[in-house]
Amino acid sequence: MKKLAIASALLSILTITGTAHAYQYEVNAGYENTSVDDTDGDIDTISISGKYYLNAVQEKGAPLAEAAFLNKASNIGLGYINASLDGADEDIDAVGVAGEFFIPNSQFYVSGTINRTDVADENGNGYSAEVGFLPINGLLLAVGVADQSESIDPIQAAKYGFMTTFANAAIATGEDDSTAATLRAKYVTQIGNHFANFEAHTYIGDETTYRLGADLYLDPTLSIGASFADSTADESETIFSVRAQKFFTPQVAVGVNYTTVDDIDSFGINGTFRF
User: Fold this and answer.
1) pLDDT score of 158
2) Whole-number pLDDT of residue 177
3) Is 103 helix (H, G, I), strand (E, B) or coil?
4) Which residues 6+ apart lie within 8 Å of 179 measured at CB?
5) In the CATH hierarchy, which top-level class contains the domain 23-274?
6) Cα(213)–Cα(175) distance, integer angstroms
């Protein structure tokens, strides 16, 4: 009986060790090709970003893609994108720094970004700042301010796509290059046997832009999702996106996405590496 108890305890330890993983660094790299009908050139975008988490993120019992959010893991990050148009002499280069901080022993959250974009002989700076509240586990409500009139946020471009990020910045800031107020919500919850992620983001500036998205986790390693974005601008076109991501191991994932609006289509692939 004693030997059986010891064996059972060892088996439990091995099971926990085999299913619980932790990481403190995350690197993302992606490629996106955007084609415009009736034009000869495509836009090719390369992105790379990384995060350092102040504490190790535990991966257990929830979707791997949402581990950092559900752990309330504070982090700092860097991002870079390069967008080049076939036949054009100059590229668009953007670099940014970001930080997210979940205030310990509270339900409050703050975040901020600073970025810089270079195009030909011109350059510009941008920023954003948020304060948020988590009324229940898995739900974040945030308000903030952003100025993307002269720069593109490379971390957002890597996450949502170059076309969506560029259109959002151009419409929200308008001809007056105004600063925009922002509202954002994110909710990760379990529905039946599956987890789901719901996101909403709006910029209120010269015009109002909004984006709604959702992801369904078929299991902790596999998700499919969709989103749409639009604005109050005259003759604005709705941007539709679909995406999927698969973690082949707790440390390595591959994602694909497709975005379309009017006569513009984008295809992207990205990889996530954790250690």
Assistant:
1) 83
2) 58
3) coil
4) 145, 146, 147, 149, 173, 205
5) mainly beta
6) 28
